[in-house]
Specification:
The complex is a heterodimer of chains A (282) and B (287). By secondary structure, chain A is mostly helical. Chain A is built from 12 helices and 2 strands, in the order αββααααααααααα. Chain A has a two-stranded antiparallel ribbon. Chain B has 287 residues and is mostly helical. Chain B has one domain (39-242, 263-286): MetI-like fold. The chains are: A mainly alpha (282), B mainly alpha (287).
Chain lengths: 282, 287
């Protein structure tokens, strides 16, 4: 029903924009990762695999990558642990107050990421709210120093930030479960636990996968929370990239690491999409 | 039905769920409460209990010119990014909905990618583009970065709206002699009004808060998050609590406004949940 001119008008402008500002930059990143930088600081456009060789040769890179993945995995696990039962509670037990609770989960998303990370810093610091509170009630006599500038602080803050993100898709998938399936399961004599594990949970897996991917991928690439709260033991892979693009001035090596991250993320998205399709019931 | 489900669940597990929900809400709101409380704390940041409540930090804040300059910069960037994202995101959603062209699957993936990709990758790849094209970094480069990243939001929101749109109205309009341009403005846009306003609000807020992409594209002028970032690196100041409290209050007003709009239109409020629905609908489209 739509004419050729109409279809061209809606297709060409976004296509061009995406080509110039997304496709070309990704390709440039790809090119940069095979270039090198001379001693005087100019980019040498000679193609070689040196950057990738260095990534494999120096353990600091893949060790940091593994640590980032471990941090991201913990964030994913904890935000799932907080988000799933919350979504289940809202979807099945909140009754008329569902919308209100839903808004209450969304509202923290409107507080700046940076400000929430910073609020955790004021809570966890040596003279912070938590330490002074513990001393005030005489539970401890010295400030606990593992709270701030540790992977713990990074995991806690990122869990706080990504819990609503994991909640959203899980809640959406629970809301899509036809309620008569749940009723049928009860009527046929299943216990609530059986109904949950055999009917509700399998049907919510697409939401779980989407939420888990969100939390893992976004925390994997984070560099602000580690800078603010991580200390030396909380450095993540993106922090290395930031320093390579800044003070260390080695864009090609930074591009190579970014490209590895991009590949990892795309692979994860591919697999989670595959699994989501396999588990979606429609 | 809801009632049946809850009634057949033993009270015990229901009580556990309620307790868990309360604990999660407490966790989500603890930093926000601390933030607001300590913006009035005379002793500065941290320290329990809060002492000597004061408005001093707000007074300092209002006389702090660099902060207000950065707020103005952020507002300009957010408005401009919103225009770009809508200008290209709405046609992109229409194209995904109703046009066939080579590379459509790749196009869909590319448009949506910045939504799920860590900001550092979007930021750095654009930085390389601007370096190669010899574009000086400024607020303009941040606008281009935000606009590009947030096209994804406009596209998903509007695409979700299009799925609910009754195409017969557009057909009728075309049959009755209106041209495409008239049909677009008189039928398509009014029907998508809620999706477009929702997308605009979301894009504006996300841009105001964006830091990972801006971090790499910043020129001489700071946006608010980068100004805050600079100060946090130097040490913590309760002024940051004060400005965050003010912004939080504005966000609350925006949420209430949005909520009113949705309930008046009798639609269930689900900001963001469309993302999942969209990904499901378009995976159906592509298969």
């Amino acid at each position: 029903m739509f004419s050729r001119a109409y279809r061209t008008t809606i297709t060409v402008p976004p296509l061009l924009w995406v080509a110039v500002f997304l496709l070309v930059p990704y390709l440039l990143m790809f090119c940069y990762s095979f270039w090198s930088v001379s001693d005087s600081g100019t980019i040498m456009h000679s193609w070689n695999l040196d950057n990738y060789k260095e990534l494999l040769a120096k353990p600091v890179y893949w060790q940091t990558l593994l640590r980032s993945m471990w941090i991201a995995a913990r964030v994913m696990f904890f935000s799932m642990l907080l988000g799933y039962p919350l979504a289940y509670f809202l979807s099945f037990h909140a009754g008329g107050r569902k919308d209100l609770y839903y808004q209450l989960v969304i509202i923290p998303l409107w507080v700046s990421y940076l400000v929430r990370a910073y609020a955790w810093k004021t809570i966890l610091g040596t003279d912070g709210v938590l330490n002074t509170l513990l001393q005030y009630v005489h539970l401890t006599s010295h400030p606990l120093d593992f709270l701030l500038y540790s992977p713990f602080a990074v995991v806690l803050t990122l869990t706080h930030i990504y819990t609503p993100f994991t909640f959203l898709p899980i809640y959406a998938s629970l809301e899509h479960i036809p309620r008569n399936l749940v009723e049928a399961s009860h009527d046929l004599g299943a216990t609530p636990a059986q109904t949950f594990w055999r009917v509700i949970f399998p049907l919510s897996i697409p939401g779980v996968l989407a939420g888990a991917t969100f939390a893992f991928v976004l925390s994997l690439g984070d560099f602000l929370a580690p800078l603010l709260l991580g200390g030396p033991s909380g450095i993540m892979i993106s922090n290395i990239v930031v320093s390579l693009f800044g003070a260390a001035y080695n864009w090609p090596l930074g591009a190579a690491i970014s490209l590895c991250m991009l590949a990892l993320v795309l692979a994860l998205l591919f697999f989670s999409e595959r699994l989501e399709k396999k588990w979606s019931f429609s | 039905m809801e009632f049946l489900v809850s009634a057949s669940t033993p009270m015990k597990s229901s009580r556990w769920l309620t307790a868990h929900a309360l604990a999660v809400f407490a966790f989500l709101y603890l930093p926000i409460a601390i933030l607001i409380l300590y913006s009035f704390n005379g002793q500065g940041v941290g320290g329990f209990p809060p002492r000597n409540l004061t408005l001093n930090w707000y007074r300092i804040l209002f006389n702090d010119a660099p902060i207000w300059d950065s707020v103005l910069n952020s507002l300009i960037v957010a408005a401009a990014a919103m225009v770009i994202a809508l200008l290209f995101g709405i046609p992109a959603a229409l194209a995904l909905d109703r046009a066939q062209f080579p590379g459509k699957a790749l196009f869909r993936r590319l448009v949506l990618l910045p939504l799920i990709l860590p900001g550092i990758i979007t930021g750095l790849s654009l930085l390389m583009l601007f370096r190669v094209a010899e574009v000086r970094l400024s607020l303009l480069t941040i606008v281009l970065g935000h606009g590009t990243a947030l096209i994804s939001v406009a596209t998903t929101e509007v695409f979700a709206g299009l799925q609910k749109l009754n195409r017969a109205q557009e057909e009728a309009s075309l049959d009755l002699g209106a041209n495409y341009w008239q049909t677009f403005w008189r039928i398509t846009v009014p029907n998508l009004k809620l999706s477009i306003i929702g997308a605009a609000l979301l894009i504006f807020t996300l841009s105001m808060d964006e830091i990972a992409v801006s971090f790499f594209l910043i020129g001489r002028d700071n946006t608010l998050p980068l100004e805050i970032w600079g100060r946090l690196r130097r040490g913590i100041t309760p002024e940051i609590n004060a400005i965050s409290t003010i912004i939080f209050m504005f966000s609350l007003i925006a949420i209430v406004f949005w909520y009113r709009l949705r309930t008046r239109a009798q639609v269930t409020p689900e900001i963001g949940a469309e993302l999942v629905e969209t990904s499901q609908t378009d995976s159906q489209l592509s298969s």
